[in-house]
Amino acid sequence: MSVLLDPGRLRCLIYNLGLVPYKVAWQWQRALVQQHQQHPECNDVLLLLEHPPVYTLGQGADPKFIKFNPNLSNVELHRVERGGEVTYHCPGQLVGYPILNLRRHQQDLHWYLRQLEEVIIRVLAVYGVRGDRISGLTGVWVEGKKVAAIGIKVSRWITMHGFAINVCPDLEGFEQIVPCGIRDRAVASLIEFVPTIQLEQVRSEIKTAFAEVFSLELISVEGEPSLE
Q1: Which residue positions does UniProt flag as site: Lowers pKa of active site Cys (predicted)?
Q2: Binding residues
Q3: Strand positions, DSSP E, 75-144
Q4: For FRET with 174, which of 104, 150, 191, 204 sits at 20 to 30 Å CA-CA?
Q5: DSSP secondary structure code for residue 210 in this structure
């Protein structure tokens, strides 16, 4: 276990994971949320990982934004608890699932969404790329193209789901949906703007920005999350 020292800050356990099946990560999140609801003193958690190809629908998402027949597809599709419409995950996209107790931060969902956007914007700035917000929409855009999607669920002020930043994925899977239900905004990846970008570098920058934005002391933990 290694520690990113920042005395006086709340602690956050960070799990640096590789390629994780969506249902496995979903199960981890649910278990961690339950754990934090039962034991509010638990440290915050951040899961950083990638997924094999998978589509997810928010709890109120409209199926009309899916352009394929799920019954004839080899790619998994799941309707989950988060807000938002349909999105796509695949290797080369870095996904972050924060399990935070907002009672220790700020009990304001709009604040939380803007903080997640700020994490991404700070990461992009490291590479000299300007990340923009668009009024009325959630996520981060570069030159009008969406590079990071955000969808959350908060239960008794414990967060789950989170953000996905397109670092160097194959974007072909996005062509089978209307990403986030937005028809007039293209999806992009950071490698289009920074050809030398590496996913592991972005992972490191996300950890730094996340610690800064949420005023956390990050503690890196080896292996899978402990759900006991």
Answers
A1: 146
A2: 82-89, 149-151, 162-164
A3: 76-79, 86-89, 93-99, 140-142
A4: 204
A5: H
Task: Give per-residue pLDDT as tens, 17-68.
Answer: 999 999 999 999 999 999 999 999 999 999 999 999 999 999 998 989 999 9
Asked whether the CA dihedral 205, 37, 149, 189 is positive or negative, the reply is positive
> Residue 31: enclosing H or E segment and its boundaries?
helix 22-38
Sheet hosting strand 54-57, strand order edge to edge: 76-79, 54-57, 86-89
Other C-beta atoms lying within 10 Å of the C-beta of residue 185 = 16
Question: Residues 133-151: pLDDT tens digits?
Answer: 999 999 999 999 999 999 9
Which residues are known to be catalytic? 180
Annotated binding site for substrate: 82-89, 149-151, 162-164
Give me the amino acid identity at 55: Y
